[in-house]
Design goal:
CATH architecture of the largest domain: 2-Layer Sandwich
CATH class of the largest domain: Alpha Beta
CATH superfamily of the largest domain: Bira Bifunctional Protein, Domain 2
Oligomer: single chain
Length: about 575
């Protein structure tokens, strides 16, 4: 149908006869001649049509085929913004392949991924959105990244193995999407939240090195950076320790940044413990591109008379130059804090002469002010934000304030890639009911020094888990897994599982572990978040071909939809569960 791609034509092609096919990106009529920008997947080229009768009704996004000859553009008419800007195609024949209705939004114009068009409208007409250069470039970046990933892992002897999509429901932290089984009424499959159990079974099977670009499904509450289905780069290997994972992941990420972006990344990545990360940055995925850090000022207020600061934890964040904030801006910070569930954000402002002002100043003793200044807080021209109360909640509030301050004040350097390993996570987290839950998942191994004590003292135990973070975003995470049945049994006990409950939920894995499981571990990357960084977007939906909206619905197809009574009966949705076998 065509002999060349539109975006590949160059001055060396002048005089060549070509047949092109694509869409009308733009039309301009001038002096009895029509100038058409013809777009296909390779780019855009200008087509000159002198017989206007052949393009009388032609308009944007009509699909067409052009036969003509490549010519040099007249002197002074080059367009250096596009690769074909030095040439044009003089048409001898134009054929309309299909017409386009009035467009719901402009396709041409912005070269960025986003275009100012309302997101749901873009998703509803995603087939038009993907004709735009930015969204199409994002998908090509994804395809490029996947090619690199496969090549790196293949070179290390990893096997690409698919695991089941229809499986059983297991407690993995989020709610499952459930699928009724028509042939066994009253029973349900679950769509996998991750291939966690199957990849461990593959290690028991002796495959040793596995990877998969796995579709995962999680029924979670709506959030901007969540979507009910996503792709996970899943990697697992046997006979390893953490250093093997670090080296492999660093090679993979460095290769991606080099080949996709042309950026050299320094390896090995720095490492930071969970406790240090949360104490200094208020987050277990700290953005280390800027030096703004939190300060623990609890000892300063050990004998304070100020009731708000009579707390288990008091933290502070210095805002450089913050004395220039107006009262309205400071009030806006209170609203910001309340929007995050806090009662507010205490503050003091230090004017240029060193005098302090703000609602809490009258409650601070002179020695407390002096101690704060000795810690670099309340210096002339700065402001200081305080959070007091529950340590984890206060750190999270100040950590979020740190990011907001850096954004508002232009403290975040652009074009900088700060990779970081966060290690030494707690093995367990306390629940509201006074029990314990897993921090990552119930198969994460405790560090060796806690093997004999985690059952009696769960709150002190650290895990062999690790996350890789880039500029404040978690790219991936994993752990060394439990491979000893006795350790797994003790973990289930801490989590409150009875032996019967553990058997019911994970019996097939526990059965496999009776047959010589090897030491094993791995890491998983959210592919969309990883590719989003490479494509220059923070939205994971922009690197999906047909994304769901933040509500979980699909604007394009209208899914999810209701089903009729007949389909409901046939699927066995209301069938009672089968009787348990004796």
């Amino acid at each position: 149908m065509r002999t060349r791609d539109a975006g590949t034509l160059r001055p060396a092609d002048v005089g060549a006869a070509v047949v092109l096919a694509g869409w009308v990106a733009r039309r301009r009529d001038h002096g009895g001649v029509a100038f058409l920008d013809l777009r296909d997947a390779s780019g855009v080229v200008q087509v000159v049509v002198r017989d206007l009768s052949t393009v009388h009704d032609l308009r944007a996004e009509w699909c067409m085929r052009v036969t003509g000859e490549v010519g040099a553009r007249p002197a002074g008419n080059d367009n250096e913004a596009i690769g074909t800007g030095a040439v044009e195609v003089v048409a001898s024949d134009v054929e309309v392949l299909s017409e386009a209705a009035a467009l719901p939004f402009p396709v041409e114009g912005s070269e960025e991924i986003t275009s100012g068009v309302e997101e749901r409208l873009r998703w509803k007409h995603r087939y038009l959105d993907l004709r735009r250069a930015g969204p199409a470039r994002a998908l090509r970046t994804r395809a490029h990244a996947v090619r690199v990933i496969r090549r790196v892992l293949d070179a290390h002897g990893f096997l690409d193995v698919e695991t089941p999509t229809l499986t059983r429901s297991t407690p993995e932290g989020a709610r499952d999407f459930l699928v009724p089984v028509r042939l066994q009424p009253g029973t349900w499959y679950a769509l996998p939240q991750s291939p966690q159990l199957f990849k461990q079974l593959l290690m028991v099977a002796g495959l040793e090195r596995y990877y998969q670009l796995a579709r995962c499904y999680r029924d979670e509450d709506s959030r901007a950076d969540r979507t009910p289905e996503f792709t996970q780069l899943d990697v697992e290997l046997s006979f390893l320790d953490e250093e093997d994972i670090y080296a492999l992941a660093e090679e993979l990420l460095a290769t991606l940044w080099r080949e996709v972006l042309g950026v050299e990344v320094s390896v090995p990545f720095p490492r930071m413990g969970y406790a240090e990360a949360t104490a200094r940055f208020g987050s277990d995925r700290p953005d280390t591109r800027f030096a703004l850090e939190l300060t623990d000022v609890t000892p300063v207020f050990g004998s304070t008379e100020f009731r708000v600061f009579q707390s288990a934890y008091v933290g502070a964040l210095a805002v450089p130059g913050g004395a220039d904030m107006s009262r309205r801006q400071l009030d806006d910070w209170q609203e910001w804090a309340r929007s995050r569930g806090a009662r507010g954000l205490a503050y003091v402002v230090a004017d240029a002469d060193g005098s302090l002002r703000g609602p809490v100043v009258r409650n601070l003793a002179a020695e407390e002010v002096e101690a704060l200044r000795g810690m670099g807080l309340g210096l002339p021209g700065d402001a200081v934000f305080f959070a007091a109360g529950n340590r984890a909640e206060s750190l999270a509030l100040l950590g979020a304030a740190r990011l907001e301050v850096a954004s508002q004040r232009g403290l975040v350097p652009q074009g900088q890639w700060n990779f970081l390993w966060v290690t030494d996570f707690p093995l367990f987290e306390p629940t509201e009911g006074g029990g314990w839950t897993f921090t990552h998942h119930p198969f994460t191994a405790p560090q060796d020094r806690f093997l004999d004590s985690f059952g009696a003292d769960p709150g002190s135990a650290l895990s062999r888990a690790y996350d890789v973070v880039l500029n404040g975003a978690e790219l991936g995470g994993g752990s060394i897994r439990i491979h000893r049945a006795e350790v797994q049994r003790q973990v289930f006990e801490v989590l409150g599982f009875t032996p019967e409950q553990a058997e019911a939920a994970f019996g097939f894995l526990l059965e496999a572990f009776r047959y010589g499981p090897p030491p094993h571990g791995g890491i998983a990357f959210g592919l969309e978040r990883l590719v989003g960084k490479l494509a220059g977007t923070d939205s994971i939906r922009e690197v999906m071909a047909f994304p769901k909206a933040s509500s979980g619905g699909d604007p394009l197809t209208g899914a999810p939809t209701a089903i009729g009574p007949a389909q409901r009966r046939e699927a066995g949705i209301d069938a009672p569960p089968p009787a348990a076998e004796p």
